[in-house]
Amino acid sequence: MTSNLAPDDPAPSPVEYTAESTRPLVSMLFIAPLLFIYEVGVVVLGPHALRNGADAWLRHTLEWIGFGQYFLLPLLTCAALLAWHHTRRDAWTVRYGVMSTMLMESLLFAALLFVLAHLQRAVVAPPAALTPQGISRNEPAGNAQGRTPPDRHRPEAGADRASLASVCDTTARAEAGTLGRIVGYCGAGIYEELLFRLILVPGVAGLLHWFGLGWRASLVWSIVATSLLFSAAHYQFFSPGGYAFDWNTFAFRFVAGLYFAVLFVTRGFGITTASHAFYNILVELL
Known about the structure:
By secondary structure, this protein is mainly α. It is built from 9 helices and 2 strands. The N and C termini lie far apart (about 40 Å).
C-alpha cells in the first residue's frame, strides 16, 4: 500500500478531507492503534483487563459457528472494512496527512458528548452523582481496597458517569482498575460501533427497504431502532451482567446512540469509533 501524499502535496481541501476521512481503508488504518491496544492489552493484562460485551457476543457467535480463534474477530473487522472499501471501488492509496485532523475531530466529538452528558446531569441528576456508586475516581475501585464492588441491582449514579463501554459485567468493571478499563474502552469503541453501527444500521435499513420503505425513511428508522437497542444492551433485562434499569441513563445512552449513528453515516466508521472510545476515556479520567 502506498501513500499518494508526496512531501510537496498541498493539504487537502475541506471537501477532499471529508471524502478521504470517511473511506473504509482510511478508517481501518485510523483505528488500528485502538485495535492493537485492546487486543494486546486484554492478553497482557489478563483478568485485570475489561472485555467489552459486544466483543464477547461477537466472539460467542463465531465460536457457535465453529470459528473460535482468538485473533479472528479483529482480522474479520479489518476484512469487513477492506471489503467495504473494495465495493466502493475506492483507490487503494491513502493520504496519511488526514489522520491528525481525524484525531482532533474525534476528540472534539467526544468532548461534545461529554458536555452533553454533564448538561443532562445538571437537569435530571442529583449533584452528588459524579462517581458510580460513591466510589472515588482517584482510588482503585471495587475489591482493590477491600470495598464491595458496585451493586448491579442499583441504578447508576449519574448520566455523566454513564460509560458507553459498560456492555459488560458491572463487578468485572469495578475490579479491572483504571488501566484495565481504559483498555476495555478502546474495545468498546471498536466492537460496539462494529456491531451497532457498521453491521446493524445498514442491515436494519436494508431490511426495512426490502419491506417497501424508502431508503431515506429506512435509514432514519434504522438509526432510531439500533440506538434503542444500543441503549438497552447496557442493562440487566438485555444482559445479565448489566446495570439495573434507570430512565436517565437509558435516555442518555439512546441519545448517544443517535449521536454515533449520525456520525457513522456522515463521518464514517473511523471517526465514530475513536469518538466513542475517547468519550469513555474522558469519563474515566475526568
